[in-house]
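Re-running MJ1316 RNA cyclic group end recognition domain-containing protein to confirm reproducibility after the cluster update. Everything else is unchanged from the original entry.
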Amino acid sequence: MFPDRCQTSREMYHRIRWDPRLDAGEFVIGYDAHGERLEEVPFAAFIPDEEIPWHRVWYFRRGHERVWDRRERIERKRSGGDCQGAPALEPTG
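Result of re-run:
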């Protein structure tokens, strides 16, 4: 694979959803609500492949930190930082 490839929004969603070390309740999803307006939805309220398509998801946030951001190419990985060299996403706790 390509070493600089960031995960897709779908991949990031499933990583947060299924990784037992992460508390999905701490995350928020930012998405394009049309007209260059971004809105947020709690992670638990997001239903994959329903009202908000994956291509409109712009970021995942935990607290004040964006852990995945499409525009900025930020992706906190479990190890090794992100596509731009930022620190890794640490497990909850």
